[in-house]
Amino acid sequence: MVGLFFCRCVKPYSNNPTLTFKHHIINHMDSTQHQRTIQHLFWRAGFGASPVEVQEALSKSRRQLVKNLFHDSRQFDSFDLVKTVPYMSLKKVIKSAATDREEMKEQLKDFAQERRETIGNLNDAWVARMGQGQGVLREKMTLFWHNHFACRSKLATFIQQQNNTLRTHALAKFGDLLMAISKDAAMLQFLNNQQNRKKSPNENFAREVMELFTLGRGNYTETDIKEAARAFTGWGFNLQGEFVFHQLFHDDGTKTLFEKSGNFQGEDVIDILLSNPQTARFISTKLYRNFVNERINEEHVANMAKRFFRSDYDIADLMEYVFTSDWFYDSVNIGAQIKSPVELLAGMQRTLHMDFTDKTPVLYTQKALGQMLFNPPNVAGWPGGKSWIDSSSLLTRMQLPKVLFRNETLNVSVKDSGDANEETVKRKNKFEVTMNWDHFAQAFDKVPEENLGKIVASYLLQVPINSLLLKTIENQVTFNDRTERIKQLTVALMGLPEYQVC
What we know:
This protein is globular. The model is unreliable at 1-26 and 416-420 (pLDDT under 50). Helix 5 (86-96) packs antiparallel against helix 6, helix 6 (101-132) packs across helix 18 (359-369) and helix 11 crosses helix 12 (222-231). The protein has a two-stranded antiparallel sheet. The chain has a two-stranded antiparallel sheet with strand order 3-4. It has helices spanning 2-6, 17-44, 51-57, 62-72, 86-96, 101-132, 136-148, 156-169, 174-182, 185-190, 204-211, 222-231, 266-274, 277-291, 298-310, 315-324, 341-352, 359-369, 391-406, 422-428, 437-441, 452-460, 467-476, 482-494, and strands at residues 235-237, 243-245, 255-257, 260-262, 355-356, 433-434. A hairpin with a 5-residue loop joins strand 1 (235-237) and strand 2 (243-245). Among the domains are: 10-72; 437-500. It is mainly α. The chain contains 24 helices and 6 strands.
């Protein structure tokens, strides 16, 4: 980061042409690096930004930009797309068709199709909010917690309820978030705690709350899990997805875990886990890997964990600390993360102010690239990092911009997708998008033609592009119309491997 401040410490000498030229070079390097750090913040604390938004941010300090991000995320709306109580609808279907097995099969099939469409609508609404809506920091944090508390459910109301819970507490206290998600119907169902009773304890939830949600593997014993499971007996939910404590199913005997004994209930276990500084360390490490760098800097993580624990697990305070720290903007962290499939889709929308008019190909692309919202691979979530990229997925990612804007085919299959509509989607061959290229091109009105490719690349890529490669791309774009030239440059640059990182 020395280069960022070097020009401010050197006085220009206008009567010396050599020094004046050197100062001009330093100023150019300084402004380019400053732009890249701003884009770094927008990518890590959100899903990127349009060139106009970046230009407007250039005159603001990092601290002011971070403050604005938190302010924009203060207010939020919960999703309210799903109205039907799932269990009640299913019971009506079975009851109305109880005398006709074939009729019941058809109605169950229709019910399943309606459920898939409803979950698809939720998926579409969330991608749209990430790519276009306000409160982008809250949505980015909601996406992080969606993976941290990885969960699947076939019940659309439960999915919507959990997503709203994550959004509500995304920037609040981690303890409140942990308690809310531990009493969430989708999670209790997914981890079998509805079946956790004193005569036959189920350890699934107790195990995952320690291994994946708080302490991390190796920081508890099997006895701790067994005793915690006893404390969580009786935790369940009703047909409306509301938390219910079944006193008759609860083991009210003395439990001993982490060398503490008492007539513990589930809330006591969560308090014990939060009182352990290892929880702050585990969450801080995961946040660092997701928002800073896959390679851990032990000193930075230790400082994060200490602050997190002392603040009573204040998520907003911790993230503000990260985003305003000089080390967050170190060159080693810029362009060091591979975009997740959802970040890729939402980022293209936010950068180009683009809208998908048909959700079906968007859902199919998530499947093809390995990150389907509301459908993590297991309770550990998506591993992220290098796992996002293999030879097949990289080719799919690189052809995606051409598919969007040149009406070409997304030539990819989803292995074992189980989707009966897959062939129909593949035959569709193209996305339907709304995009105003004239508006996008206005951001480059003052850029000289000879610098156009380089400047467009600086707004789209977080890593430097090889000059020969850029020259090749420029030579291939021969349109005289400037807007069309900018469009083709943008599509070509977004199709590079360099665009896959942020």
